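# step 3/5: fold
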Amino acid sequence: MNTLHFKYAIEVDRTCSISQAAENLYMGQPSLSKAIKELEDSLGYAIFERTSKGVKTTQKGKEFLSYARNILIQIEKMESLSDMDSKNTQNFNISIPRGSYIADAITSFLSELDNNKGLNVNIQETNSKQVITNILDGPFNLGIIRYQLEYENYIQDYLTEKRLKFETIWEYDYLVLMAAKHPLAQKENVEQTDLKDYIEITHGDTTIPYFMHSGNIKVNKNTDSDKRIYVYDRCSQYDLLTTIPTTYMWVSPIPEKWLKRYQLVQRKCEVSGNRYKDVFIYPNDYKFTSLDREFINKLSEAKNQVSFHDYK
């Protein structure tokens, strides 16, 4: 059985499309279809059901893909044993949401690595859905996901089903971030209705898996604004907030140094669905390395610096 076909099947399952999977894998659709057919023939059952809307994973296919992902992860671990055992190489990988306190923890952690040793670090900022996919399919072993508290039962059930462990990092309320010269910056209590005439900056890919209906849901918007700018990285959002003083953004608490650097302020605003949680995830059989534990300590320090701040 060709394990390369496992990767093909995982990509088809992820995209629900033979043509899209073929494009992502940089191969022709006929070649991919043939590979999937060969895999199904060798297994003796169908992994996918072809429909007018694309492909749908069968129940046996879901079970197979769960095993296939674990096999690929184990193969990757075997292939990386020489690097992991080498005292001269520092290995670390993590997939994270776009959170400034998490980025600060990453920076602090990396700044203290040994410059006399080799370095193999892989960091990706993305949405929660992709973080989970990165852990399941590799090459990431560690991840942090962010979700609204109202979806917690769905999230935890799904993580358990996928044999992922999870540990709470922090539970908090989103704050409104804006320029110090924003018209609302001097208000002690910002109301939801105060925001309706201003431009919201938001990340364009903040999706999480909606496990009850095999689709995706957008993270709830806290306003009814019809004025939005979608961004995909933290630096551009700060520049926009500073340059366009009629913009604002819903964020996790921001470290003081970022507020001072970009002349920003953050304010509390009471709205429904505003409680969030950041959760650390990793495979059930994963063993933390010494570097992993060092990062966790840095993450705790970074979180404490913002969680103990008294915001208006």
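# step 4/5: annotate
The longest strand covers residues 164-173.
# step 5/5: archive (pending)
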